[in-house]
Amino acid sequence: MPRSQFLAAFVGGLLGLTFPVCECGVVPLTRRLFNKGLPISAGLSFLLAAPIINPVVMASTYAAFGWGPILIGRFLLGFAIAVSIGIVFSFHNNPSQILRQASIRQTEDAATSCDHIHHNKLPLPSRLRHAMSHAGEEFFEMAPYLIIGSLLASLMQTVFPRSALLSAGSGPVLSVAIMHLLAYVLAICSTVDAFLALAFINTFTTGSVLGFLVFGPMIDIKSTLMFLGVFKQKYVIYLFLLTLLLSMVSSLFINLVGGG
Predict the structure, then answer these.
(1) pLDDT tens column, 24-80
(2) What residue numbers bound the domain in which 195 lies?
(3) How many CB atoms lie within 10 A of CB 200?
(4) In 10 A of CB 44, how many CB atoms?
(5) Are 221 and 184 in contact (CB under 8 A)?
(6) CA–CA separation, 260 vs 252, rounded Å?
(7) Is residue 99 part of a domain?
(8) Which residues contact 149 (CB under 8 A, 6 or more apart)?
(9) Is 135 part of a structural domain of the chain?
(10) Domain contains 210
(11) Nearest to residue 3, comparing CAs of 41, 32, 30, 53?
(12) Among the listed residues 160, 181, 155, 170, the one whose alpha carbon sits nearest the alpha carbon of residue 244
C-alpha cells in the first residue's frame, strides 16, 4: 500500500478487483483490513468502490446493458466518487478517531502484534480454527445490523407505491431524486441490481439510472446500519451525505449537459 494517502485511496478503489464482495460483505472485510493497519483513505475507497469495481458486478452489468454508456459510466463514476471520498477523509487530523474503538482493535497494540506473530507459527489446522473463530465473532457482531437493515428494506419495498414513482421518471431532476431514493430503500445486492435497473431504462433518464447503479451499492439502508458498527455515528452521516451529494451532482450533470 503506498505511503501517500492520495495514492492509497486510488489503490483502495481498485482492491475490489481482487476482493469481489457486495455491499454487505465489504463492511466486515474492511473492518478487518482496518484492523491490520489499512489507511483510512484506502479503506473508505475500498468500502465504497468494491461493490461496483469487481468482476462479478462488471459481468452482470455487461449482461444487462452490454457495452455502452451505462457500463462505462457506472465504473468510472463509482471509482471516482469512492476515491474522492477516501481522499476527503484522509485530511482528518486523527483518522483513527473516525473508527469505533469498541469494534476496531488498535493495530499498534503490542499484545495484538505478538498474538498475530504467535498465530503465524501455529500449524495449519490451528490457524484454520482461529480463522473460523474470527468468522464467528464477525458474524455475531455484524449480523444484527444486516438483519435490521434487511427488514427495513423489505418494509420499504412493501409500503412505497413504485407505480407512482415511475410516472415521474422522465424529469431530469426529479428522476434523479427518485432513483437515489429507490436505490437506498430497495437495497438490492450490487451483483444483480443491473437487471432491476434495466427495467427502468425506458422510463427514467440515463443519469438517474446511473445514479441508481452507483449510489445503491455504495450506501443503502442495510449498509448504513452496518457502517454504524465500524464508524462513529457522525462520520456515518458525513459519509452518507457526501456520497449522496457527489452521486446526485454527477447524475444531474449527465442529464442536463449530456442530454440524459
Answers:
(1) 778 888 888 887 788 888 889 998 998 998 888 888 889 888 888 899 999 999 999
(2) 5-92+124-257
(3) 20
(4) 30
(5) yes
(6) 9
(7) no
(8) 187, 220, 221, 222, 223, 224, 225, 226
(9) yes
(10) yes
(11) 41
(12) 181
Output the nine-digit C-alpha cell for 144.
444484527
Dmax of the chain from CA atoms? 62
**Who's near 64: CB < 8 A, 6+ residues apart?**
194, 195, 197, 198
**Measured between alpha carbons, how far is 158 from 155 in angstroms, rounded to an integer?**
5
Distance separating alpha carbons of residues 33 and 11, to the nearest angstrom: 14
* CA 87/CA 76 separation, integer angstroms: 17
Residue count (the chain): 260
Q: How far apart are CA 42 and CA 61, in angstroms?
A: 25
Q: Which three cell numbers stand for residue 146?
A: 444486516
Q: Whole-model pTM above 0.90?
A: no
Number of domains in the chain: 1
Q: Which amino acid is at 42?
A: A
Residue 104 is placed in which grid cell?
A: 476496531
